[in-house]
Amino acid sequence: MLYALSTSELMDRPDLWQAVHSLRHSIFVDEMGWEDLRREDGLELDQFDHEEATHHLVIRNGELAGYQRMLPTTRPHLLTEVLTDLYEGTPPSGPDVFELTRYAVARQYREGRWGVSSVGSELIAGFIEWGMERDVDKVIIEFEPMWVLRALQLRFLAQPLGYQRTYGRQQVVATLLTFDDTTLRVVREKRNYDAPVLVHGLPDFLGYKKAS
Amino acid sequence: MIRFDDTLEYIEVIQRARTPQEVCEALVGVTKQFGLNALLAGTVPGQGTPGEEQRSHVLLCDWPIEWLQRYVERNYVDHDPLVQYMRRTPSQVTWSDAAARIDLDRSAREVFCDAGAYKLNDGFAMPLVTLEGQVVMVSLGGENIELDDNAIRLISLASTYAIGRAIQLSSEEKTIEHRPELTPREKECMRWAAAGKSEWEISQILGISEHTSEKHLLNAKSKLGAANRVQAIAEAIRHGYIS
What we know:
The structure holds two protein chains of two kinds.
Chain A: E1 2-6, H1 7-11, H2 14-31, E2 54-60, E3 63-72, H3 78-81, E4 97-105, H4 118-133, E5 138-143, H5 146-153, E6 157-160, E7 165-167, E8 170-178, H6 181-191, E9 198-199
Parallel strand pairs in A: 1-9, 4-5
Antiparallel strand pairs in A: 1-2, 2-3, 3-4, 5-8, 6-8, 7-8
Chain B: H1 4-16, H2 20-31, E1 38-43, H3 51-56, E2 58-61, H4 65-73, H5 81-88, E3 93-94, H6 95-101, H7 106-117, E4 122-129, E5 135-142, H8 149-178, H9 184-194, H10 199-206, H11 210-223, H12 229-238
Antiparallel strand pairs in B: 1-2, 1-5, 3-4, 4-5
Helix pairs in contact in B: 1-2, 1-8, 2-8, 9-11, 9-12, 10-11, 11-12
C-alpha cells in the first residue's frame, strides 16, 4: 500500500517523519555517498521538503519499505536549482509536470542486483495512479541511465533533458517520462498485481502489525 | 560538439521506428559519423549456446550477412573477446581495449582477424540491463572509428533508446501473434451473433445461406479456441474484434 502525504501531514506524524528522513539519510548519504547532505542526527532534509511537496510512503509489515517525493515544477525544484548541469535549454514545467526525487527502497526490500523489487515497482505504480488522479501525466526524474531502458520497457514515453553526468559514484541522466493507461497496465502486468496501490488516508503507527 | 537539439531529433527518429530494421538504420544513422556503421545487439548468450539458439538472442543486427553466417557457423560467440569481456565486467569498452584486457587465445585472435576482413577493424560495445535483469550487449563496429567522450555520451544515449524501442517492438509482435486472424465475414458473423442474432437471422442480414453463416461461426469459434458460442463472443471481444 502506498500513502501520499503532504509535508504538514507528515510532520503531524513523528513516527513517519522520523522513518522517512532516516531512510533517506541511510540511502542517499551512507550508501550513495552524497556527502553534502550528511547530518549529525542521521536525518536527511533539504529545502524542497516544503509545504507543496508530496511524500509517497510504501508501508510493509508495519515499517517504511519505500519512499519517493513529488515536487511541483511550478516553483524551483531540484533540476532547476541544484542539478542545473543535467538539462539543456528550458526544462519542462507546468501543473501537469512533477519532479520525482529521492526514490528509495529500504535495503531489506530489495531483490537481487539488477531487478526491480516489488516495493520498487509499487512506487512506480503509485506515482502513476497519484498523477492520474490530478491530471499529472509527466514526471522529471534524475536517475541512472539504465533506468531509461526500464522506463521504455514499462511503456513510458521517455525524452532526455540533457546528457548524463557523473555524480559521486553514479551516472545520472535527467529524463522526462510521460505516462498513460497503457503504462499503468504494463506496470501492473509486470508486477502481477492488478489492484490500485494508492490508498487514501493515513497509515497505522509504525511497528504496529495487523493480526492476520 | 554535437548540439542537443540534434540528439533529440536522433532519438525521436529511433522512437518512431516501426520495425527492428528501421531501429537499426536509425541508430547507425547516429553512429556512422564516428565511423561505426555495423551494429549487433542482443542478450549475451551463455557459454556453449548452440548456433540456432544464438539467433534468438539477437535483437538488432545489420552486420554484413557473410560475417554473421561465419560468426554463427564457427561458433565465434564462445571465443569472441568482447562477449567474454561483457560476461566478466559489463561496462562500456572499445573492441581493442576489451581485447587488450582479455588473454587472447588463438581462437579469440581469429575472431578479431576475421572481423577485420569484413571491414570491422575496431568498435565500441556497451551493456544495458533489462527490467528482467538480462544483460543486452550493443556492439558497433567499423573500419576507421573516431570516438571522444561526447561521441560516447551520444552513442550510449541513442543505443539505450534503440534497445528500448526494439524490445517494445518484439513484445508487440508477441501480442499480435497471439491474436487469431479472423476473416472479414467471420468478424461480421461474430458481431451479429454477439447482438443475439441466430444463424438464420445472420444469413438473412448478410444475404448468405444459413449453412454459410453457420460455417463462418464455427470457423471463428475454433480460431478463437472457444468451446461454445458464448465463449467465442467473449474471446472476440477480448481480442478487439467486437467492441
